[in-house]
Amino acid sequence: MTVVIILIVLGILLFVIEFLLVPGITIAGIGGLVLTVFGVYKAFNDFGSTTGVWVLIGTLMLSVFVIAMSLRARTWNRLMLKTNVQGTVDSDITEDQIKGGDLGTTMTRLAPMGKIKVNRIVREAKSIEGFIDEHTDIEVVSVEGTRISVKPVKEK
Length: 156
What we know:
5 strands, alpha+beta
C-alpha cells in the first residue's frame, strides 16, 4: 500500500508543479497523470476492487483539496514578488518650456524618434520628415503635452 500512496502523492505533486510553475502540457503534467493513474490501477490490481474504489475516491478528494489550497489567495501571496517599481514618466510640463518654432539640435539620430536639445532642455522628439541625423539643426513644429514634433531646418 505504501507504493500506491507514494505514486499518487508524487502524481499530485507533479500536477501542482505543472499548474503553478510550468504552465502548459509538459513532462510534469504528463508524469503526474501517469503516476496517479498507475497508483490507482495498482490499488485495484493488488488489493481488489473495494480498496481500489476507496483509493480512487481518496485520490479525487485529495486532488480537489490540493487544487483548492493552491488557488487560495494566501498561497499566491507567498509566491508573489513584492517589489515596487519606483520609476516615473517624463512629467515635466514641456508645453511651457518648448514652443512651436523654437530651434534646437538633435543629440541622437531621429529614426523617427530620438533625443533633441531645445532651450537647453533634452527631450525625446519625433521627426515629421523621415530620418534626421545626429547634430542636425531642427525646428519644433508642435508640442502636445510631452510629445514634440520636429523637422530639420532648411539652410538658406
